[in-house]
Amino acid sequence: MSVDQPLALIGGEFRKETRSPSLPVVDPCTEEVLWLQPACGPAEAAEALGHASKALATWSAVHGWERGKVLRRIAREMEARRPAIARALSLEIGRPISQSEGEVNAAIEQFDWFAGEAERLFGETIRSRQGGRLIVTPEPVGIVAAFSAWNFPVNLPVRKIAPALAAGCPVIVRPSEQVPMTTTLIAQACVAAGVPAGVVQVLTGRANDIVPSLMAAEEVRKISLTGSTQVGKMLLAQAAETVKRCSMELGGHSPVVICADADVDAAAVQCATFKFRNAGQVCIAPNRFYVEESVAERFVDRMVAEARALKLGDSRDPTTTMGPLTLASGRNKVEGLIADAVQRGAKIRAGGRRPDGRNKGFFLEPTVLSDVSDDARIMIEEPFGPVAPVATFHSLDDAIARANSTPYGLAAYAFTGSSSKAEKLSAGLRAGMVGINSFLVAHAEAPFGGIGHSGMGREGGRQAIQDYQNIKLTNMTWA
Description:
CATH superfamily of the largest domain: Aldehyde Dehydrogenase, Chain A, domain 1
CATH architecture of the largest domain: 3-Layer(aba) Sandwich
Strand order of the largest sheet: 14-15-16-13-12-18-19
Distance between the termini: 59 Å
CATH topology of the largest domain: Aldehyde Dehydrogenase, Chain A, domain 1
Radius of gyration: 23 Å
Helix content: 25-40%
Shape: globular
CATH class of the largest domain: Alpha Beta
Strand content: 15-25%
Number of strands: 22
Number of helices: 14
Number of domains: 2
């Protein structure tokens, strides 16, 4: 089935329209309308819940080995659609087309990984000291509501769909209204792979029209959110009303500590690459740079050179290396953070403004700031944009303390050539994930998630599927 517009998926049926007027999706490169999407609401949510309830009885009874086969077929269907998914991703969020297939590949790995996890849902048997056997059995938690953000529109929903299916749970996905076409193509792959009707459903449209119905429903036993800390707090409060299990991947504000004994030039290249990836719109992006005083200027100079070497342009251009911000509101926020930092004494070393010659699109030059004070808002608030604020430190203890100065704890990074410092930084940095001389902390086979105001639960790794299971204990004895 070819797809030329976003579609909702309810009870195995793809729909172009709903009872409400369709919603536009704006191209962040041109500010023109890309396409219209169905606007689901309470009626569609109620219908999806009915289909999911019926599907739970049958899908949960399918053996994990067979569920694994379905997941692997989804992975192969995703491979067949890789160019189309990458194109939709690039159009909807403005990421350069040359960088978009990498995310599709990462999502495919999630389906392959959780296929194996489905095959390993064995439970365990324990000999009771009072006689008999204690049988521990994993069971599906029930219907899952998955809410995903726009910045990684393939990997984020797949990180929720794959473990839910592996565990035997139907899942209702509400993607960001910015990325309905990308999600439509994922849903198409699921249907083509033989996922039964009602097991995977997609409700496109505004959060306020869809989410309240799912949150109030007793049938929904788990929610999984990738979003802001503010939204996470709100959903946690709502989930308490019906005692839903929650997984939350929330905001981050990742610090980076660069020690003088590191390979400073190599560190700066890595920092620039990952800072400006996706125009800085990455939850685990390096956001606050604490550089040892003696090498700070060298580090900044290399960061500036890397920033200036980026080609800012339309996402469709294969030579573009950084696109626009996805939303006008995001660019406005970043510009405000830059202005605040400068007012507090920071120096703009590169970028800091909208590029010349572009009257359309939400573009902002990749920016490097030096001499940034700790009280600047950009050191306290997650920028979610292409700005690298650099501060200096004298002692490692001081750097660790300042790195831990926010309530977030998603990811943290450090660069050093010393094994003892690496151990100290790994132990001392307060985060769910720490990268030493590397930013590669996201893997299908490893747990991904944060602590503190960055959330709870894990995606990826053998730990992730546990959030989609109830554990039943049976004490089996005989007279």
